[in-house]
Amino acid sequence: MTSPHALEGRVAIVTGASRGIGLAVAEGLVAAGARVCVTGRDADPVHGAAARLGGVGLAGTVADPAHLRELTALAMDEYGRIDVLVNNAATNQPLGPLMDADPDGWGTAFAVNVEAPLRLVQHAWRAWMGEHGGSVVNICTEGAAHVGPNVGAYGTSKAALLHLTQQLAGELAPGVRVNSVSPGLVRTEMARFVWEPAEDEIAAGLPMGRIGEPADIARAVVWLASDAAEWVTGTDLLVDGGTRVRAAHTP
Ligand SMILES: NC(=O)c1ccc[n+]([C@@H]2O[C@H](COP(=O)([O-])OP(=O)(O)OC[C@H]3O[C@@H](n4cnc5c(N)ncnc54)[C@H](OP(=O)(O)O)[C@@H]3O)[C@@H](O)[C@H]2O)c1
After folding, report:
1. CB of 30 within 8 A of CB of 36?
2. 223-249 per-position pLDDT tens digit
3. Cβ contacts of residue 246 below 8 Å, gap of 6+?
């Protein structure tokens, strides 16, 4: 477990933190001593989460470049620094075969899952990290490594995010570390359509015997954000309960 004081004095932005993995990440960062700035599209859950976390919140979509500028300004005005950036907000839309995909929907998947993380890294770099250093963690997915039915837009955009992570890690070293965490199936709203109808069956096929909980992912993110991972950059940390190796598992 990361030390309870690992992020004392640090400030973190976490996008999409009104519920699910983002909220658990924000809770983990606060437990490690950080102050947080959280986002989400629906205002009430964002402000509720920010209040419970003792931080600040901003409602808006990461697909809107103006929102990302405002978010950076909020963190700097409120706390004067941005040490940690967790690009967590994402969309799994449009679902379905790519031949049916509406180009605008495809574009939105890339705007939310790839462009927004890059824009925010640029803002954080210019506002603080370029001069003072920092740590970026992008939330990818175990599924980015292989193809699957109906998730072509999501998988392609997350594979691009994985590449972006490595590219930025090389460009921004040594001051700023850039890593990703790739979750397997986690009990959240986004993945409810996958786990709810078949949780027992899915869990039985996983080497670790259960689907993931948001806190499983949060612990990995907090570690990567902290100095405990000071020699780690450009890495994708797979936190998937053994999903990738399940073919060798005999329940
Ligand atoms: N759950 C899984 O099995 C799983 C597996 C692999 C990877 N992941 C990744 O984990 C991350 C978190 O997903 P989750 O499962 O925790 O999803 P979730 O429970 O649906 O939570 C998503 C969060 O992001 C916010 N959000 C969604 N779209 C946004 C946008 N355009 N701009 C700003 N905020 C937005 C949501 O609030 P609003 O709806 O109010 O905006 C919410 O706070 C994503 O990057 C996802 O791809 C999840």
Report:
1. yes
2. 999 999 999 999 999 999 999 999 999
3. 205, 206, 207
* Residue nearest to ligand 1 atom 2, measured at CA: 186
Topology of the domain covering 11-239: Rossmann fold (3.40.50)
Strand positions, DSSP E, 5-154: 11-14, 35-40, 56-59, 84-87, 134-139
Give SS3 for 208: coil
* Pocket of ligand 1 contains residue 189 by CB under 6 Å: yes
**Structure-token pair, residue 79:** 């706390």
Looking at the chain, the number of H-run helices and the number of E-run strands are 10, 7
**Structure confidence by residue, pLDDT tens digits, 187-220:** 999 999 999 999 999 999 999 999 999 999 999 9
Whole-number pLDDT of residue 200: 98
Domain boundaries, the chain: 11-239
Instruction: Flag residues of the chain having pLDDT under 50.
Output: none
Catalytic residue among 125, 128, 154, 223: 154
Q: Please give the angle made by the CA atoms of 236, 126 and 154, to the nearest 5 degrees.
A: 35
What the block records as the tokens of 37 is 């700035």
C-alpha span between 136 and 130 (Å, rounded): 12
Cα→Cα distances 86→28, 94, 116, 248, Å: 12, 23, 11, 33
